[in-house]
Specification:
Blueprint (H helix, E strand, L loop, with lengths): L12 H8 L9 H8 L6 E5 L6 H12 L6 H4 L10 H4 L4 E6 L13 H16 L12 H12 L3 E6 L3 H5 L4 H15 L5 E8 L16 E3 L13 E2 H11 L3 H8 L2 E3 L2 E4 L1 H10 L15 H5 L6 H9 L4 E2 L15 H11 L3 E3 L4 E3 L3 H11 L8 H6 L1 H9 L3 H14 L9 H11 L11 E6 L2 E7 L9 E8 L3 H10 L13 E9 L3 E8 L6
Length: 530
């Protein structure tokens, strides 16, 4: 066996601990992909995902598989990777350099020296591993030492860089340190013949300066563009259901609490929270309780036009159109609400549906975190009171009491006037979603402007499976009339889309008149009459 160091050819202890844990979900299928890009133009991967989403575990797995410093054949026995045709070709056959950048940045004082420390420690181990290669001084740059080793031995390296972006979280305001770090990475990887594979993990994608990146040789796999690696960013539905059956945990409740992240064609569950819920047999906020970076409230309190409305709409189950292209991949450069929302996607507080270009709150766990940030005593004025009315307003709706619903909406409007300023039907829609916040207990996420009959219903709520509640078809009007809204629902057959639902269907027509206030008419849909 080759030399085993801390940074050069590390061992497999960390991966062994993951395998020995109470719950392990096999993600070794990732190895088939990394084997496929070894020594190709696609060999540089930057994989960004939120904290506690398995970044380090994947890095530990790749180290255990590739490193010459250990024998991992027994660890991978029976795992998905073993089925890969190139499995034996690369198992423990490569020189690996593993660096956890965060270990070199324990305090802000380390920002001035961490690059030198990383280089000197890796170089020291390389000199020990390759004593036959002359001309390597203790103060030589890492890239120069690697060049010299490659020229003399033709040996390449696999780089596993964990927490690569922690520099940008610690040095948010220090652009010179950020640029120096990017220059270091560019010098290390760009055009380097000694690189067989570079696998970097972090929370943020690669930092951009304007429209350019200093390390644009990397392909990015992120929460907004996972490419073909989506199923490796968390637990898939099939993986979670299997564990729920094994541990006797309700899979529907698990889905409500921790599912909802859109990663390409996959819906991904938060792995940290799923594991804790399986172990402790209790559903609660596990992942958000580990917050160590930035308080959510700092970002959603930013004074960008439309940001608060967007957050409230998403809290009510709505989805917001978003432009992710201008985001600069840091925690300081914000020009619009879309920049803030894009950061929250990367941090795991929101998710992104690439096909529709929308963002939304993924699950109950995150929804509660938003409520903690905005609904407390120091939160957004009136929001807590408005949300407390939601359950009663929903019961008024089921009882077909349009007058009571109208009065409830008026109260919510008054309580949140400092947050939401009515000026069109979109603002009214936002208020409706907030008013029906409690609906998420009984209903799936609301569907906006669903094509039904000869037009679009504004909001549709369909009950969750095994929940005996009426479906709701809601039409909103501005400075018109509730009667006109109910007539439109019937004439254009908006309810036809949900006729397959065998339970009751309620038609809810709401109008807001700037002089007369809110009015509401609620009727039960009679299928035989339309």
């Amino acid at each position: 066996m080759e030399f085993m160091g801390i940074y050069v050819n590390p061992g497999n202890t960390a991966f062994k601990e993951a395998l020995n844990s109470m719950i392990y979900v096999d993600k070794s299928g990732l190895i088939a992909y990394t084997n496929g890009v070894l020594n190709t133009k696609q060999k540089n991967l930057c994989v960004s995902r939120p904290r506690r989403f398995g970044k380090s575990m994947a890095a530990d797995m790749l180290v255990a598989y590739y490193s010459k410093g250990c024998d991992s054949s027994k660890l991978f026995a029976g795992l998905e990777a073993e089925k890969e045709i190139t499995y034996n070709l690369h198992l423990n056959k490569h020189y690996v350099i593993r660096i956890d950048v965060q270990r070199f940045l324990e305090t802000r004082k380390d920002l001035e020296t961490f690059i030198d420390k990383m280089e000197s420690r890796v170089v020291a181990e390389l000199r020990e591993e390759f004593p036959q290669c002359g001309g390597m001084g203790t103060n030589d740059r890492l890239k120069d030492v690697l060049d010299r080793i490659f020229i003399q031995t033709r040996k390449g390296f696999i780089f596993i860089i964990d927490e690569w972006d922690c520099v940008f979280r610690m040095a948010k305001e220090k652009e010179d340190i950020q640029k120096n770090y990017l220059d270091f990475l560019r010098g290390l990887f760009k055009g380097a013949e000694y690189v067989e594979l570079a696998y970097m993990t972090g929370i943020l994608p690669i930092k951009k300066y304007g429209e350019h990146s200093a390390i644009n040789m990397f392909d990015e796999y992120s929460m907004v563009d996972p490419k073909s690696l989506g199923k490796y960013f968390g637990f898939t539905k099939e993986e979670v259901y299997e564990q729920c059956r094994k541990y006797g945990v309700d899979d529907a409740e698990m889905e409500t609490w921790y599912d909802g992240y859109c990663l390409g064609t996959f819906h991904i569950y938060n792995p940290k929270s799923v594991v804790d819920a399986l172990i402790w047999k209790e559903f609660q906020n596990y992942w958000t309780g580990t917050e160590t970076y930035e308080a959510l409230k700092v970002y959603i309190d930013m004074n960008f036009d439309g940001l608060k409305e967007a957050v409230i709409e998403m809290l009510g189950g709505g989805r917001c159109k978003i432009n992710i292209r201008q985001f600069q991949n840091d925690m300081t450069t914000f020009k619009t609400k879309d920049d803030v929302l894009t950061l929250l996607i990367h941090l795991g507080y929101l998710t992104y549906d690439k096909r529709e270009g929308v963002t939304f709150v993924p699950n109950k766990e995150i929804s509660l975190e938003f409520l903690n940030a905005v609904g407390g005593p120091s939160g957004w004025s009136g929001l807590a009171q408005a949300l407390n009315r939601s359950e009663q307003l929903l019961r008024y709706t089921w009882a077909l009491d349009g007058n009571a619903v109208a009065e409830g909406l008026a109260a919510i409007h008054n309580e949140t006037a400092s947050i939401l300023k009515y000026n069109n039907e979109n603002s009214l829609t936002c208020t409706i979603l907030m008013a029906y916040y409690s609906a998420k207990t009984y209903y799936m996420n609301p569907m906006m402007e669903m094509p039904s009959g000869k037009g679009f219903a504004d909001v549709v709520y369909l009950p969750r499976r095994n929940v005996d509640r009426p479906a709701l078809v809601i039409e909103l009007k501005w400075n018109k009339s509730a009667q006109g809204a109910i007539d439109q629902i019937k004439e254009r057959r908006y309810a036809s889309w949900v006729e397959e639902y065998t339970g009751k269907i309620l038609l809810v027509a709401i109008n807001y008149d700037e002089k007369k206030g809110h009015t509401c008419i609620i009727e039960e849909y009679a299928k035989a009459n339309i």
